[in-house]
Amino acid sequence: MKNELSVTLVSAGCTISGDLIVDHGISYFGLLDGGLISTQGLLHVGDGGLIKGNVQGDHVRIDGRVDGNVHARGTLEINGHVSGDIMYCGTIRLGPRAALNGTLKRVARMLTVEPATSESANPELTATDRAAAAPERAESNVTEFSRAKA
Q1: Looking at the domain assignment, is residue 38 inside a domain?
Q2: Domain enclosing residue 94, as ranges
Q3: What is the three-class DSSP state of 110?
Q4: 23 C-beta neighbours (distance < 10 Å), count
Q5: Which of 35, 75, 112, 141 registers the highest number of CB atoms within 10 A of its CB?
Q6: Which helix (H) or strand (E) holds 15?
Q7: 108-124 tens-digit pLDDT
Q8: Does residue 31 fall inside a structural domain?
Q9: Stretch 90-109: mean pLDDT, rounded?
């Protein structure tokens, strides 16, 4: 099977209410009232884009605004505004327009929020550990998702 580049583009003027989960890259320039999760590829919040919820991805680039927590399992580049806690595993780059309001923490890759797995897959985690590892918005109707490993 041939590897194909798959990227979703949400342009300015588009408003989505609810959590958005993709299994590939995304470039978001609109307004999202909910969380944004990309399980692989680049998660880009473009200039003028606004996310009112948590952002989670492998490689995260923020040129717009995020009002929520940011979790990057790989690289993180911020040249916009983040109001929330930031956890990252790899490298971080702050641009000249970066504005942060929250805590910044580098963690081991295993401590970042990964796609949810069944409890039987991680029996050593207590309910408290799972709750701490996977914070979610109270009004969200998305509680967990899993990705099949190929």
Answers
A1: yes
A2: 7-133
A3: helix
A4: 16
A5: 35
A6: strand 15-17
A7: 865 545 554 444 444 44
A8: yes
A9: 91
